[in-house]
Known about the structure:
mainly beta
Amino acid sequence: MSRLITLPDGRQVTGCKNYVRTPKPGLLIDSRIEVGIALDAAGLKAGTPLSLYVRGETSNTQTPLRVWLSSTTMPTAREVTPDQFKAGIRLDADKVGTDGCVVIFNTTAGSYKLWHFAVMLHDEMDESHVIQQFNQYYV
């Protein structure tokens, strides 16, 4: 599903929006890290289905990465195994309330390097586009 999106520079495009403020390809996660999410009016509505996608590399074999999307029906952090992280994993949750969201990553041992990261409306998420493009939106 595509929709009309207004970019920060005022341009309007038809596409799907990645709400991650700065996706930071290559972000090293070796402790607790928070990443801001810039939800628009559509994403801030209570009950809105959101999807989070992460993929990257790690030498960890056992210690999971904990991922939590705040202000959603994800009550606690989800544990993502090293194999799931390397293959890419999508986590779905519904928006709760009208407050903004942050994504919190945490690991207790080793490190994870994040290469593909998106938080999008559930019906706009297409993991193949997140893999190919690390932009604010895609057409």
